[in-house]
Amino acid sequence: MPTVLWSQRSSVWWRLSGVTGNPANWLHLPATELPFVHAQPNQISRGSVDYDRVSRVVYWSQSAPADASNSWWSLGAQPIIDAVSWKSTSVMQFLSSWHVGGLAVDWFTGNVYVTETEDQLIAVARYDIHDDNMYRVIISSALERPTTIAIDPYLG
Q1: pLDDT digit string, tens, across residues 15-28
Q2: Would you state the pLDDT for residue 149?
């Protein structure tokens, strides 16, 4: 599984990419020999990304392609092995129509913390609860367009 994971963009596609293995083994390697893995390129914009090491699920924020007739936003999630091996398992989507700025996964609890830039709030949700309203706003005041977020899983 990837040790480092990121969202990557070209002029026509987005994809998740990563490097596997022990970072200590990468130091002596030229970039062309690094053990890269890549998800299948897609026109859906992929922004923030995080990984739940316990459930082995990768999460990302996503939005409609720039040329789409209607815009939409949500979170996507997929088992990491399927994402980087180009398997066509379905992508779980939740928090539809949220403008997600950032996300962070608490791998102790399975909770996903998100910043929502339009309504200016921070909420916690879970992908495995199949109810669009299954989230809880934890901060909704004194925020101005929150973007990224980080959490401490030990204090979760």
Answers
A1: 888 998 889 988 88
A2: 92
The answer, yes or no, to whether residue 123 has pLDDT greater than 80, is yes
Answer yes or no: is 111 within a domain: no
Helix (H, G, I), strand (E, B) or coil at 83: helix
CA distance 45 to 61: 8
67 in a structural domain: yes
Closest CA to 122 of 106, 107, 142, 94: 142
Give the count of domains, the chain: 1
Contacts of 129 (CB under 8 A, 6+ apart): none
Per-residue pLDDT reduced to its tens digit, 25-52: 888 899 999 999 888 888 888 888 999 9
* Alpha carbon distance 27, 116 (integer Å): 37
* Phi, psi dihedrals of residue 32, rounded to the nearest 5°: -70, -15
Task: Let me know if residue 140 belongs to a domain.
Answer: no
In a domain, 88, yes or no: yes
Q: How many residues does the chain have?
A: 156
Q: CA of 81: how far to CAs of 61, 67, 92, in Å?
A: 18, 30, 14
